[in-house]
Amino acid sequence: MTKLRDTDAGVGATNKRNILQAAEKCFAQFGFKGTAVQKIADEANLPKTNVLYYFKTKQELYVAVLEETLSLWNSHFDRATVDDDPAEVLAAYITEKMEVSRTHPQASKIFAMEIINGAQNLTGYFDEEHAKWMEGRLALIDQWIQVGKLPQLDGEYLLYTIWASTQHYADFSAQITRLRGRKMIKADFETATRQLIQLVLGGCNLPVPSRYIENVDVE
């Protein structure tokens, strides 16, 4: 077997990254059915044969984009334990998810469309791994409640509220832009993030860490 040269590996990684970025843009704009492999190839500035070399079918490429979106949502919350401060963990989680909505809005929109359409293209990765993640985070929230770090609440609805609130800024960006009369910039996202942290933590009877409160003087 011929050993793959480092330069070949580098080119391959670059091509795959370009293809995934092009596919993300096309799927977000045209949906799965409205996107042809040729359209993705044109967007990536590569021959169609190159795209099919790395991803055998449009379905395989679409699933790869979906799984990349899930990986974007990985956070420190994934590794939090009962010994951690829920105020710090939840504030950081909201901040991370808001940053993904700001920097990767197309990925979020693709995932939202897939869920709305019944999640038919999500593989066992979603059904098994994502469900396992959910079970673990709900168990952690229950532990926080048991040791008195959180009041009695339903962790499932807490997570749904965070997801809905943070992903709204990506999935419904067109609505926000129309209502505001302009697109949100980084400073707007930072303000929205602080507001959302205060709303969620306030609803959980948790103190808001000082760095998430605007115009706070720290000695």
Task: Give the structure's gist in a few sentences.
By secondary structure, the chain is an all-alpha fold. The protein contains ten helices and no strands.
Identify the notable features of this structure and list them briefly:
219 residues; mainly alpha; 10 helices; 69% helix; globular
Task: Please report the total strand number as a whole number.
Answer: 0
Looking at how many chains there are and whether they match, the oligomeric state comes to single chain
The average pLDDT score comes to: 89
Measured by DSSP, the beta-strand proportion falls in under 5%
Q: How many H/I helical runs? A: 10
Which structural category do the helix and sheet elements fall into?
Answer: mainly alpha
Distance between the termini: 64 Å
Summarize the biggest pleated sheet. none
The H-and-E topology, N to C, reads as HHHHHHHHHH
The Rg value, from CA coordinates, equals 20 Å
Task: Sum up the overall morphology in one term.
Answer: globular
Tell me the helix content: 55-70%
Low-confidence stretches: 1-7
